[in-house]
Specification:
The structure is a homodimer of 136-residue chains. In chain A, 40% of the residues lie in helices and 26% in strands. Chain A is an alpha+beta fold. The structure holds a DNA duplex (25 and 25 nucleotides).
Chain lengths: 136, 136
DNA sequence: ATATTTGCAAACGTTTTGCATAGTG
DNA sequence: CACTATGCAAAACGTTTGCAAATAT
């Protein structure tokens, strides 16, 4: 949290109640959170920001690479930038399951960095298919 | 195109002017196309469907796995399902560059299929970062 | 003949904006 | 004090829907 605090300050942001609660929520869940879920979790903490405020916070945090935004099946999801994993997305029930696969892309990223002169900050890897329940 | 035709018929769809032109557009471009780009390309072919018609076509084709839909930085992109590649997405200029990496995920997919009892249909792999121009 | 596809207009839901006020550093 | 963050209401935006007419098989 300390490093986050300084990152935010460096970005010209202020550590407000909303931002703090938002980061706590994202830190406590080790998975992708939708806006609706974020709002629910904030409510549990008795933090009920206006929608525009929440949206503006999310834009700020994404812009400064403090959190990542991914869109899966038309819904936006957020997670802390350093909490990175991959996902299995069920095309039947839309459930999203985490899957851990460490270092699998390191070589490819090095290759891309050299070959394409592209400075990689992050990546997104999602597998789409059908979970056990939804297989007919 | 022939196989696509039969796939569409099997799915209960009809080969209309719009659907045909849409598939031609997607087949001619070997990259992700946004809705706006699709509309422009259709116009060149003098096919100008109503927005709702186009959206309905896209929903149909995605639903039947004839095309893939990916959302990158908040914009929806489409491509023929068998035309699969990965992308470098520039966080500066939003440009999307294709990158070919064959078979890199085969082993992982086999592992996931067994370990998670998950039937993989497709996957999405995107690298986010800064292209040569946007590196300061 | 039957079912799908189409365009239109209205409805919808989400996100964005302007502005005045409150709060942070 | 200067600048960011907030809530509110309005506006903007893309998408979806219902329906009657047109079209494909």
């Amino acid at each position: 949290m300390h490093t986050l605090h300084s990152t935010i300050k460096k970005s010209g942001g202020r550590l407000t109640k909303t931002k703090q609660a938002l980061l706590e929520v994202l830190a406590s869940q080790h998975c992708l959170l939708s806006k609706a879920t974020i709002i629910k979790q904030l409510q549990r903490k008795h933090v009920t920001p206006n929608r525009s405020t929440l949206y503006r916070e999310l834009v700020f945090l994404v812009k400064h690479h403090i959190i990542n935004q991914s869109t899966i099946n038309g819904t936006d999801y957020f997670e802390l930038a350093h909490q990175h994993h991959h996902h299995l997305v069920c095309l039947g029930c839309n459930n999203i399951e985490r899957v851990d696969m460490d270092n699998h892309l390191t070589k490819q990223e090095q290759y891309i960095t050299k070959q394409h002169q592209f400075n990689i900050i992050n990546h997104l890897l999602e597998f789409y298919g059908y979970c056990q329940k939804c297989q007919n």
